[in-house]
C-alpha cells in the first residue's frame, strides 16, 4: 500500500514514519527544499524522542521517502494526507490557505482514485472546501477522476508522539463513502490488531472531535490553575486537592496539575479557533472564553510572585530559568509560558539566564540574545538571586541541593510546576514558592 503525506512537521513526519513502520510505502512531501534535503540526509527538523532512529530505519528499508514534488508522490498512492500548518489568522480563526493550496495541487495532478484526508486540525466544514478545491481543478483539466474526502484528526502528544501513533487510544475518521472506509480500514488495521479503536463517523463530527478534545483538556488545566490560585488565598494545597478529586474515576488524574499555564502548538490555537467558529455561528462558548482568559493570566503568576518577593525591584537581579520549552521532551516554544515570564523579567530590569536540555536553539531563534544561555543547569545558577522552574524536565526532579546552595546568592526557588515539596524546602532552609500551595 502506498500513501502520500503532505507536510513534515510534528504531525506529518511522525504519522508518515509510523505508517512506514507498519510496511506502508510512504512519501512525505514538503515545499521546504532545505528541510527535505536534510531529511534525505537523516537530519530531523524537530526533537521527538525515538523519531530519528525510526526515520533512519524506514528510509534505509525503502519504505519512507522525502520529496518536494507532490505530483511524484501521487504515483500509485491510494490516500493522501494533508498535514500542513493551520496557523491562527488575525481574528483567531484557523488559516486554511495552506490546506486549500494542497487540495488544489492534488486536483491538478491526481490520475487515479484517491482518498484525500485532512490530518491538520481544521474547522468544521473544511472538508467541503477541500472537496470543492480538488473538484475545481479536475474540472479545469476536463477530467472525471473519482475521489473521496475524509477527516482524520491527530491526537499526538509532543514528547510521546511515537507511542501515541503506534498505540493509539482511538483513531477517529470521518467518511461519507464505503470505499474510503475500506481503504482507511486497511491502512489503520496494523495499529489496532489487539483492540478495535477505529471510530468511524460523519465528517463534521470528526472535525469537531479534535477541537472538542483539546478544548476539554485545556479546560481541565485552566480549572485547576484557577482553583490553585484560590488555594493560596484560603490556605489550601492544590496537590492535596488534586489527589482528592483525581481519585474520582469521573475526573481522573490526567491534566489536573496546576502550573504556569498551557502552551504549545495545539491548545492555544485550537481554543481560539473553536471560539471563533462558535462566534461566527452566533453561539458564544462562554466556558472556553474563560479558559483562555484564565490561561493568559496564569502565565504571569510566576513573574508576579518573583516581583512581589523583591518588592517590585528586580533591576539588576540575576534570575535563573530552568526550562524554556512549553513542556518536557520537546523543543517546541509556541505560546510557551517561559516567553511571557522572560519578557516581564527583562522589562523589569532583571538579567535572565536560561537553561533547557533541548530548546535553547529554538529560544535563540525566537528571542536571540534577549537572555543569557547556560550550557548546564548549574551554570545558570551561578550568583543567581532566584531560580524559576518553568518546565518540569526529569533532570530537574532531584537536583544537587548542596551545590545549588553554594552557587546561588539566595536559597530562593519559584516552582512553576510544583515538583518539589514545600516541607522539604523549608527543612533545608530554602524560601519556596509553588503554585496553589
Spatial gap, N to C terminus:
54 Å
The proportion of residues in beta strands is: 5-15%
Spatial sequence of strands, sheet with the most strands: 3-2-1-4-5-6
The CATH architecture of the largest domain comes to 3-Layer(aba) Sandwich
Q: How many domains, as an integer?
A: 3
Radius of gyration: 24 Å
CATH fold type of the largest domain: Rossmann fold
Biggest β-sheet description: 6 strands, parallel
Low-confidence regions: none
Query: What structural class results from the helix and strand content?
Result: alpha/beta
Q: How many DSSP E strands?
A: 14
- Number of distinct helices: 18
Name of the top-level CATH class of the largest domain: Alpha Beta
Structure commentary:
This protein is 44% helix and 14% strand. By secondary structure, it is of the alpha/beta class. It folds into three domains: 2-201, Rossmann fold (3-Layer(aba) Sandwich), CATH 3.40.50.720; 211-298, N-(1-d-carboxylethyl)-l-norvaline Dehydrogenase, domain 2 (Orthogonal Bundle); 301-433, NAD(P)-binding Rossmann-like Domain (Rossmann fold, 3-Layer(aba) Sandwich). The strands form three sheets. It has a six-stranded parallel sheet, with helices on both faces. It has a six-stranded parallel sheet with strand order 11-10-9-12-13-14. Helix 1 (10-21) packs across helix 3 and helix 9 (203-234) crosses helix 11. The longest helix has 32 residues, at 203-234. It is elongated.
